């Protein structure tokens, strides 16, 4: 799986790369955040993590909201693309870093756990066995108590065989997070990417207990 992803970046076979912030994530932070019931300011004394960040647009969007952000990706090419893309954006935030790292093994910067993490198309890129349980356990390890994990769940398309992307369900996220996280928000976005049928994405927010 890892080698395939790294190769995908090298040969520019990255169909998931929207080249912009996910509209559903923009909507949540800019229009619906009141519904989550947690102050964004309360997360600013910590850092945000975007694992499997790809081009890094979602990471930069978080940073632009005043939260220092780290985007990591296993692929050095992805990190190179993310750095170049950021540098090409007028008014890009400066409170952001991109680093080539393995989500499952990277050392926490300064031994500090994150106050926020955003996960989009990372969960569905991982073969369910054995990675989903490890994914949930790792987020529990790297997010501090009270910190948030925002998941844009995709693709919610039942029990389709094979992947990536592997089919996901809200229950699949709950199953690997509920030991350490409380789900505080669950709603379909109103703005869908043009190529996404309504109902294939859902925004889920979990709070680390
Ligand atoms: C489907 S892509 C999604 C990229 C990005 N989130 C986006 O929406 O454009 C999944 C990304 O996860 C990265 N990845 C795979 N395994 C990883 C790991 N163990 N640690 C960090 N990144 C990983 C891949 O290199 C790839 O860029």
In a few lines, what is going on in this structure?
By secondary structure, this protein is α/β, with parallel strands linked by helices.
Name a few traits of the molecule.
209 residues; alpha/beta; Rossmann fold; 2 domains; 7-stranded mixed β-sheet; 7 helices; globular; binds S-adenosylmethionine; S-adenosyl-L-methionine; SAM-dependent_MTases_sf; S-adenosylmethionine-dependent methyltransferase activity; methyltransferase; transferase
CATH class of the largest domain: Alpha Beta
Choose one word for the global shape.
globular
| Content of β-strand | 15-25%
CATH fold category name of the largest domain = Rossmann fold
- Overall mean pLDDT stands at 92
Taken in chain order, the helices and strands follow as HHHEHEHEEHEHEE
Q: Rounded to an integer, what's the Rg over CA atoms?
A: 16 Å
Biggest sheet descriptor: 7 strands, mixed
Oligomer: single chain
Strand order of the largest sheet: 3-2-1-4-5-7-6
Number of domains: 2
InterPro entries: SAM-dependent_MTases_sf, TPMT
GO molecular function, one term: S-adenosylmethionine-dependent methyltransferase activity
Keywords: Methyltransferase, Phosphoprotein, S-adenosyl-L-methionine, Transferase
Organism: Rhodotorula paludigena
């Amino acid at each position: 799986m890892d080698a395939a992803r790294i190769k995908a970046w090298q040969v520019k076979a990255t169909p998931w790369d929207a080249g912009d912030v996910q509209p559903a994530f923009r909507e949540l932070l800019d229009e619906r955040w009141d519904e989550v019931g947690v102050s964004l300011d309360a997360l600013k004394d910590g850092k945000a993590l975007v694992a499997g960040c790809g081009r890094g647009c979602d990471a930069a969007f978080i940073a632009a909201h005043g939260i220092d952000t780290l985007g990591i990706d296993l692929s050095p090419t992805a990190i190179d693309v993310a750095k170049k893309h950021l540098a090409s954006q007028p008014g890009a935030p400066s409170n952001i870093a991109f680093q080539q790292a393995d989500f499952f093994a990277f050392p926490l910067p300064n031994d500090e756990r994150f106050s926020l993490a955003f996960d989009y198309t990372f969960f569905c890129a991982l073969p369910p066995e054995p990675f989903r349980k490890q994914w949930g356990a790792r987020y529990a390890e790297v997010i501090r108590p009270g910190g948030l994990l925002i998941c844009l769940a995709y693709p919610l398309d039942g029990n389709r065989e094979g992947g990536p992307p592997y089919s996901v369900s809200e229950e699949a996220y709950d199953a690997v997070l509920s030991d350490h996280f409380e789900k505080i928000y669950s709603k379909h976005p109103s703005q869908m990417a043009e190529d996404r049928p309504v109902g294939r994405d859902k925004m889920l927010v979990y709070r680390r207990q």
